[in-house]
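To illustrate this point, what follows is a protein record of this kind.

___
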Amino acid sequence: MAGVALLVATFQVMLDRLTSPELIKFFRDRKHDKSLLKKLKLKLLGLKMVLNDAENKQFTDRAVKDWLDELKGAVYDAEDLVDEIATAALRCKVEAEYQSGPNQVQSLISSVTKLFDDEIESKLESMIDTLEDLAEAKDSIGLKDVAGQNWSHRLPTTSLVDESSQYVMGDFCYKLEDGKAHGISEKLRHFSYVQREFDDFGKFKEIKEAKCLRTFLPLKRRRYMEQWLSKKALDEILSGLTRLRLLSLSRYQINELPYSIGKLIHLRFLDLSYARINQLPESVCTLYNLETLLLSNCYLLTTLPAELVKLISLRHLNLSGTNLKEMPMHISRLKDLQQLTAFVVGKCTGSGINELKEFHSLRGTISITGLQNVTSGNDALEAKLREKKHLEKLALEWGRTTEDSEKERDVLEMLEPHTLLKQLQIKTTEGQDFLLG
């Protein structure tokens, strides 16, 4: 049941995106045939109507099960195509906001979309033909439209695939307990495995065949044991699995993240926790769909790319346990951040504490360091901490001794948090540590 419910969720996401004003405007501005989007939407709606009937018959009718498997593959491909269009639209929007002069913007947008323009209509036509074939096949195996079906109570609540989903989805999911992956289907979308102390390329060699893989998820065997991933394995994963949505490399002792990470344009979730990297490649800043970036306990990490502020889809940025010296300039552009675990106050305009004022949805825990760089209480007030009612824990730290104790008190007073805050920690320049709550 869960497999079909996941499929329904995918249908709904696609249908929503196909009707989004941003995507339609982008398509119109590029002078593409808008009727192709409408045709794709209608084909998807027609196929969605028979899912209830197919779900009931798949266990007793082999033809229905085979048809449903073909549909899953086609729908995944269609979602990738729609996501490719939406990503191109998002990239143009971000780059237009980031560049200064109109000529520069137009030149950049033209270069971004040239290859896209050359291929997109033929890809859409091919996808519509595939869905049309499936629509004809459904009639031949006796699948019926079921109007008014309600899937809301069965839709999955997480993007990670649970055990029941793995059972139903067959070739689409693979869990490696030990040894090397074998018998991998090109239909594979979700891959998980138990981490070993050293994972080499041989363990993942067959994964290269799964060009449409969505999830690459290591499972921890021991909580604190260090793991190592061979450079060849990492390079092959990043260069070959370009449709990944979720990539976890957590606890692998990676010294350098390859530039090819920028090829993963569909990526939503990237976990690099405990890696030994001291910087991120600039190509990370082209992952415009990225919603979650976990860098916790990357203790060698001292800086973030300047253009990280282009990742306007980011919701979660975990920087706990890093040794950042400053934040990227104008990080307030990431207005939709809900989790920002660390903020380092800089000395320059564009990296001051007032950057925090735009983060209206912050929740959970945040540690604010470098408060000696705040010039006055009025600047501290601009952070608007009192308005952030979803914050639960707040840590405030002055990094070095200042002779102006009056200014320090003034800054502290102006950083008064919301009354719903559960815990407040204050580290002063004198080395005093106060914990309230």
Remarks:
- Confidence is low (pLDDT under 50) at residues 151-169.
- The CA atoms of residues 61 and 141 lie 9 Å apart.
- The chain is about 35% helix and 15% strand.
- The longest strand covers residues 391-397.
